[in-house]
Specification:
It is built from two helices and 26 strands. By secondary structure, the chain is mainly beta. The strands form seven sheets. A seven-stranded mixed β-sheet has the order 2-1-3-26-25-24-8, covered by helices on one side. A five-stranded antiparallel β-sheet has the order 15-14-13-12-20, with no helix packed on it. A four-stranded antiparallel β-sheet has the order 5-4-6-7, with no helix packed on it. About 40% of the residues are buried.
Length: about 350
């Protein structure tokens, strides 16, 4: 551990999309101006409430949200949050080589135990993690996993029903060798049952070809699984490689026998102007999400939050502690809340401290 004086910065940051505004800033008298000679500590409350856009955060200069034009090429961010999910700037998520380790200090907790955790429990877990934990940690960069959270739909508080979430989109490798970008533009419900969806897509015949214009396919979900061929823009029979994806109720599957798969489109990319769908770092054989040390799961104590334990659609923080490695520096990170002072969701509070 460096013997340099500690730098304490406590901030409340409110950020919409990727633009942040510091509301308060306090510092100790022994604060020094060169961040390279200090140990960075801090706390951020981040507006990550947009269901489509990530909010990007850097540890640099005490920690803050940061505007990022193209997260796929920018090294100006270290981690990012969208609603209840997080990602790091490394692997398939970005060029920064940032890696993380989930210490899962509360990973074996039951749902009842998680609902009874207090900030005292969070403090205990936080203080227990020291520089000594770095040596035994397994650091990983972000890759892609199956997104089981149903990201293409969301709950609408006005209609009190599910609606499409066109902010979620994917690059698709088709079963017959072409590529496309897709999103669900409309979801029609019959009570609690999906009745139909409208798929918006743009496609290209090859990875180096030109992207086509915006097209749509209307899919009836009342007749069982619907098999969609993007190259012809039609719904038909699942014959060999003549289909790319299927939709049934709330499930979207891909023709894995013919190597079809997806990579999530970053929300910073404009669906109508994306130049290529054939340039993804990889395509998973499922509806994919970027995931790594910060798990996408909200159904157990191994992730950041546990959802709907008491049947009231709320999220409880697990108070797990994560290690995040940025270059030679290593930080410990803990999420301690999800709601702001007004009770609105999508405002994770993150505290962090440089260990090395």
């Amino acid at each position: 551990m460096t013997s340099a004086p500690r730098r304490w910065i406590a901030r409340r940051v409110v950020a919409t999309g990727a633009i942040a505004m510091a509301v308060t800033l306090t510092a100790c008298e022994d604060e020094i101006t060169d961040p390279g000679d200090s140990v960075v500590q801090g706390q951020l409350t981040i507006d990550a409430s947009n269901p489509a856009l990530f909010t990007y955060v850097t540890f640099a200069y005490g920690g803050s949200a940061v505007a990022v034009t193209d997260p796929a090429t920018s090294e100006e961010w270290d981690l990012a949050f969208r609603r209840f999910s997080g990602k790091l700037n490394g692997g398939v998520a970005g060029p920064g080589s940032v890696a993380g380790a989930n210490l899962m200090n509360n990973g074996a907790a039951t749902d009842t135990e998680v609902t009874q955790f207090t900030l005292t429990d969070a403090d205990a877990a936080w203080e227990a993690v020291t520089e000594a934990d770095i040596a035994g940690a397994t650091f990983i960069e972000d890759g892609i996993l199956e997104d089981e959270s149903g990201p293409w739909f969301r709950f609408d508080p006005i209609s009190q029903n599910l609606v499409a979430n066109p902010g979620a989109a994917w690059k698709v490798r088709e079963g017959e060798g072409g590529y496309a970008i897709i999103r669900i533009a409309e979801l029609v419900m019959d009570g609690q049952t999906p009745e139909s969806v409208t798929i918006e897509y743009r496609r290209q015949d090859s990875a180096g070809g030109a992207m086509g214009d915006l097209s749509t396919i209307d899919v009836n979900l009342t007749m069982g699984p619907a098999f969609i061929d993007l190259s012809s823009g039609s719904v038909g029979a699942p014959i060999a490689c003549g289909w790319d994806l299927s939709i049934t109720f709330f499930a979207i599957d891909f023709n894995t026998d013919c190597n079809a798969g997806t990579f999530p489109l970053d929300a910073a990319e404009d669906f109508t102007s994306v130049a290529s769908a054939g340039d993804a770092p990889e395509y998973g054989p499922f509806l994919s999400v970027v995931s790594g040390a910060f798990p996408t799961t909200v159904g157990d104590a191994e992730g950041i939050f546990w959802y709907n334990i008491e049947g009231n659609n709320r999220l409880w923080p697990t108070f797990n502690v994560f290690l995040v490695r940025v270059g030679t520096a290593v930080y410990k990170v803990q999420i301690t809340g999800y709601y702001n002072s007004s009770g609105e969701s999508g405002f994770p509070t993150m505290r962090f401290e440089q260990l090395r």
